[in-house]
Amino acid sequence: MGSVSLKIGDGTTRFKRASLCSSAVNILMLFSVITTNLFALFAFTYSPEQHLNQYPRKSISLISEQVSLILKEVDSSQRKPAQMEKELLGYDSLDLSRPNLARELKLFLEHNQLPLGKDSRTGITEMVASVGHSCGKSADLLSQYMSYKVSGPCSDDWSLGQKLILRGCEPLPRRRCFAKNIPKVGLSPFPVSLWKPVGNKSVTWSGLGCKTFECLKGKKLSRDCVGCFDLVSGYEAQKYVKARGKNDFLIDDVLAMGNGGIRIGFDIGGGSGTFAARMAERNVTVVTNTLNIDAPFSEFIAARGLFPLFLSLDHRFPFYDNVFDLVHASGGLDMGGKPERLEFLMFDIDRILRAGGLFWLDNFYCANDEKKWFLTRLIEKFGYKKLKWVVGEKIDSGKSEAYLSVVLQKPVRV
């Protein structure tokens, strides 16, 4: 058997030191546990009851406010498409709650829900009556225009309607009354009607200064209408077939430029309809745009057996794209104001003119070099082929004035 030797000296000392350290650590850990539990007990038992209830209430209030804001945003976003639709379709152009607004106007403009709900093709939910956006600025005149007895005679107020149109209230609302009847005595058969003088009883003279065509014959109604109601002894009977200057193009020469492809045309500011009459003699149908400014232009043109279109130049032309073989315009093309107005009009002319069709600008008055320069640049912008281009001068009241006459051909655009 072996023997075991124990060295008590140094080992006993080390044991004593370790025992002292362990005791200190144990005491510290015990103190930490007791302190932590005391703090926990303090947190759950010492806080007053009012504080325990106050903080949850504040949190719930804040959450409720946030939910309310979110719901408002959702509701607003849902209303925006409907509001945009109303603005685009012109629902709110007139405030129907205004006092003294004619009942007929309210009935015409009220919203009509589609019976089957939203239309899948157009996206609209209501049928809207067509009325000019600027009518709201002339609500008093418009209400006067719409004040009548239903199924009774309309007031003799065509001049009031035209005043609204010239103020931008176009189109006018429809009415449920009967327009004044004009017997139209002495109308001649076509084509005799083209050059037969129109009788005074064939038109209405209300709202006009002159009451007879004899009165109108000696008047200068515009640069393009000087004696234009005299179909017998004045220059009107020679217009487009006999030139007075280099700016006056002959109608047969222009038709030859179309290589026989001119069948239908549109005349802008056509005066008494002589351009359409000359075209009718050559089996070309022409629609004449006109207004009754100081004279019964529309009725006079119709009495000649031609087609008048009562429309201002601020209105988009009511024709489909690329339908006319020829567009003719003269002084009526002058929009005045900013050059952009003329540019808008030129783009609409280009829209209704077919590729290869002719645009005839006839004796356009160039008030100054700046206007002539702008019009020239504008025409070049469209890339039309210049078939004829003449800048000439005329003497008016002893003053020399510049005029531009051109025949252009619309290009084929890909």
From TrEMBL:
<keyword id="KW-0325">Glycoprotein</keyword>
<keyword id="KW-0489">Methyltransferase</keyword>
<dbReference type="InterPro" id="IPR053223">
    <property type="entry name" value="Prob_Methyltransferase"/>
</dbReference>
<keyword id="KW-0808">Transferase</keyword>
<keyword id="KW-0472">Membrane</keyword>
<dbReference type="GO" id="GO:0012505">
    <property type="term" value="C:endomembrane system"/>
</dbReference>
<dbReference type="GO" id="GO:0016020">
    <property type="term" value="C:membrane"/>
</dbReference>
<keyword id="KW-1133">Transmembrane helix</keyword>
<dbReference type="Pfam" id="PF03141">
    <property type="entry name" value="Methyltransf_29"/>
</dbReference>
<feature type="transmembrane region" description="Helical">
    <location>
        <begin position="24"/>
        <end position="46"/>
    </location>
</feature>
<dbReference type="GO" id="GO:0008168">
    <property type="term" value="F:methyltransferase activity"/>
</dbReference>
<keyword id="KW-0812">Transmembrane</keyword>
<comment type="similarity">
    <text>Belongs to the methyltransferase superfamily.</text>
</comment>
<keyword id="KW-0735">Signal-anchor</keyword>
<dbReference type="GO" id="GO:0032259">
    <property type="term" value="P:methylation"/>
</dbReference>
<dbReference type="InterPro" id="IPR004159">
    <property type="entry name" value="Put_SAM_MeTrfase"/>
</dbReference>
<protein>
    <recommendedName>
        <fullName>S-adenosyl-L-methionine-dependent methyltransferase</fullName>
    </recommendedName>
</protein>
<dbReference type="InterPro" id="IPR029063">
    <property type="entry name" value="SAM-dependent_MTases_sf"/>
</dbReference>
